């Protein structure tokens, strides 16, 4: 199975860019964080297992993540855009063994800007839709445009959890730049600009890879 990886610091826009790219390419978008949060919300066995880990901003075990990835694959889909996976070297090696990695896009963003973006994030407590009080505001303050649900701050977007997630990023994820660069798969993208410009830049490169 072919795949493209989008990775970067929290708040760098991985989810947004993976969404746009997967739509353009007709690929499946797999966002592990969202999948895990859905399990928590539905209070499944897996959700109950990972709830505390996610809440404090730590990484879930690799084996659980592999299970989530495998159980989410849509039969017959031409390829996958992974967002939030891989998150460490062990996961990258797993990916390289099981998938054909076409390319990896690293979204490069200054830490202060990343923290500012994460702090402005809101999520609908009913339908899960995401907002950003700076770049993607709801029409009415604290109310979801789609379903009228109340907007809340994700538990792992609170200051203590953000700190932990950034530590995890520097300790485990940043090294993937080197991993992908050594295989000639890395493209670094400046994630500080406009969503549409970034998306175009990624798409132009991605089209040379698929
Ligand atoms: P995200 O929304 O991508 O920031 O992910 C939210 C949380 O889900 C992370 O802080 C981790 O607890 C968990 N998570 C997401 N992706 C992974 C992964 N590839 N490996 C381990 N834990 C993950």
Task: Report on this structure.
The termini are close together. The protein is 48% helix and 19% strand. The radius of gyration is 17 Å and the shape is globular. The protein is of the alpha/beta class and 210 residues long. It has a domain of 143 residues: P-loop containing nucleotide triphosphate hydrolases (Rossmann fold, 3-Layer(aba) Sandwich), CATH 3.40.50.300. The mean pLDDT is 95. The chain has a five-stranded parallel beta sheet, with helices on both faces. Strands 6-5-7 form a three-stranded antiparallel beta sheet. Helix 1 packs across helix 9 and helix 2 packs across helix 3.
Short précis:
This protein is α/β, with parallel strands linked by helices and 210 residues long. It has 9 helices and 8 strands.
Q: What labels would you give this structure?
A:
alpha/beta, 210 residues, binds adenosine monophosphate, Rossmann fold, 3-stranded antiparallel beta sheet, 48% helix, 5-stranded parallel beta sheet
Fraction of helical residues: 40-55%
CATH superfamily of the domain at 2-109 and 173-207: P-loop containing nucleotide triphosphate hydrolases
Strand content: 15-25%
**H-E string:** EHEHHHEHEHEEEHHEH
Oligomer: single chain
Distance between the first and last residues' Cα: 12 Å
Spatial extent as radius of gyration: 17 Å
CATH architecture of the domain at 2-109 and 173-207: 3-Layer(aba) Sandwich
* Largest sheet composition: 5 strands, parallel
CATH fold-type name of the domain at 2-109 and 173-207? Rossmann fold
